[in-house]
Design a protein that fits this description.
- This protein has 12 helices and 11 strands.
- It is α/β, with parallel strands linked by helices and 307 residues long.
- It has one domain: Rossmann fold (3-Layer(aba) Sandwich).
- The strands form 3 sheets. The protein has a 7-stranded parallel β-sheet with strand order 3-2-1-4-5-6-10, sandwiched between helices.
- The radius of gyration is 19 Å and the shape is globular.
- 40% of the residues are buried.
- The mean pLDDT is 93.
């Protein structure tokens, strides 16, 4: 297949490119050709911006993973706008290119995140059938991650009727060379890891290998379309995650991080750590996808070489 990928130099994108490059012709949308060649090799076609395309004729598939990292900087108004624009603008442009195509790609896989569900305790079983209108129905405040993802998904789903669309709501991606886990490792290795806030907030995680396998599964299964939760079948609380990570690293987890300190240090962005949700991949399971890492202890053992 001839595949256009946005976000190919990111934590998820790099692994996806490696999984696809032997059998497919890849075109990567990137602002940095030098970085792309350095990290991914020089065998792929690079595209500096979507303005160079008048349509998507010639591509068989589009995978859209572009987006400014949401947890790298404090959420100033300027940075919030950058987070939104980096997702919304590219997705909107892709939708217009799909519309302009005489022979559009057969599938459009576009990223999203589980932050769209908002903050919920363990009693709320969050699968793809969950009604997102609950924010208005219950009077709950619509948080920034929900707002970002809601419009992001809306723009991608505009392509329904033109092509097969799969939107993946991605959870906490576990891998050693990027993502949230990389940021957690140093304090844990120093014995300074501990429960965050109440410790009861949900952490819906997924091993990066399983996430890449999900994208390939959706790419190759023509009956799959719509919304899919890209999370392992067994989400955990922050306390359970903390204990499992400490065990995997053979380090104590005795230093809790109070919510008040996090809120002071990170401002609004602290909700990424203090709030959570328990998300389940019902539609993937029903479609026949088989997870390799279904339990957190096994996923961490694989990452840290303990099995």
């Amino acid at each position: 297949m001839r595949i256009l990928i946005t976000g190919g130099t990111g934590f998820i994108g790099k692994a996806l490119v490696k999984a696809l490059e032997e059998k497919h012709q890849l075109t990567l949308l990137t602002r940095s050709a030098g970085k792309a060649h350095l990290t991914l090799g020089n065998q792929h076609k690079l595209l500096g911006n979507l303005g160079a395309l008048s349509s998507l004729d010639g591509f068989d598939a589009v995978i859209n993973l572009a987006g400014e990292p949401i947890a790298d900087k404090r959420w100033s108004l300027e940075h919030k706008q950058k987070i939104c624009d980096s997702r919304w603008d590219i997705t909107a442009r892709l939708a217009k290119l799909f519309e302009a195509s005489e022979t559009p790609p057969k599938v459009f896989i576009s990223g999203s995140a589980i932050g769209i569900y908002g903050d919920h305790d363990k009693q709320v079983h969050l699968d793809e059938s969950f009604d997102l209108a609950h924010f208005k129905d219950t009077g709950k405040e619509e948080k920034f991650p929900h707002s970002v993802c809601a419009k992001w998904e809306e723009l991608a789903l505009e392509c329904q009727g033109i092509t097969r669309v799969c939107v993946i709501r991605i959870g906490l991606v576990l891998g050693l060379n990027g993502g949230a886990l990389k940021k957690m490792l140093l304090p844990f290795k120093l014995g300074a890891g501990g429960v965050v806030g109440s410790g009861q907030q949900g952490m819906s995680w997924i091993h990066r290998e399983d996430l890449i396998a999900i994208i390939l599964f959706l790419l190759n299964n023509e009956e799959c379309q719509g919304i899919y939760n890209a999370t392992a079948p067994n989400p955990v609380s922050n306390r359970e995650f903390t204990n499992s990570l400490g065990t995997a690293l053979s380090r104590p987890t005795l230093l809790p991080m109070p919510a008040s300190i996090l809120s002071l240090a990170l401002g609004e962005m602290s909700q990424l750590l203090l709030e959570g949700q328990y998300v389940y991949p019902e539609r993937l399971t029903q479609a026949g996808f088989s997870f390799r890492y279904t339990h957190l202890d096994n996923a961490l053992a694989n990452l840290f070489g303990n099995q």
